[in-house]
Amino acid sequence: MSSSENEYLDCDNILKLVLVGKSGVGKTNLLSRFCLEFKVKKLKIDDFAVIVQIWDTAGQEKFQAMPPTTYRGSHGIVLTYAINEQDSLYDLERWYKTALQYCPPDVKFFLIGNKSDLKSKREVTFEEGENYAKSLDISFMETSAKSSENVEKAFTDLIHLIFNEQIIKQRQITNNQVQKVLDTSTSVIIQNEKDKENRNQKSGCC
């Protein structure tokens, strides 16, 4: 067994993120800043080992529709536009609707306005990006893949959001399982008491 396989086995959770957006907005550069190789990042969150697999859709934007397999099993979608290209923000509506169609219902979205270093060429204001994120009820951050500004924070914020929700769900499942056991135990105790009472009544008859 390879060391990489061992690493996956030692991991508590594996999360899948997908970067989408118009060609040229800097998705691949963002990815290279966050995880240098293999498009995989290993993190430690609350004493849990978490491996993040990041799918970069660069080069596939020319197709009218992304393969559904790209989205399946995703935990998070990073909607990406460039602040120096207004159309790249408008184009995200298509990516968002497609992701909703193929992703699990509990997938988390995060909006990134990349190339924040190109302030003199800005076409999308911070407020426009923020308002778009609010309209979708998702988190938003401007980043610069060139200077690394906010890149690590944007990804880790999304990962923490996903992971924390998973922990809550796991606890709910555990609580439900415990409650079922308690309910079953209570039913058995009640039934045993009834059986004992019936036996006592029969033994007291002439």
TrEMBL record:
Gene Ontology MF terms in the entry: GTP binding; GTPase activity
Annotated source species: Anaeramoeba flamelloides
Protein name, UniProt field: Small gtp binding protein rab8
Listed CDD domains: Rab
PROSITE patterns associated with the record: RAB (PS51419), RAS (PS51421)
One Pfam family named in its UniProt record: Ras
Keyword line: GTP-binding, Nucleotide-binding
Highest taxon, organism lineage: Eukaryota
InterPro entries, per the entry: P-loop_NTPase, Rab, Small_GTP-bd, Small_GTPase
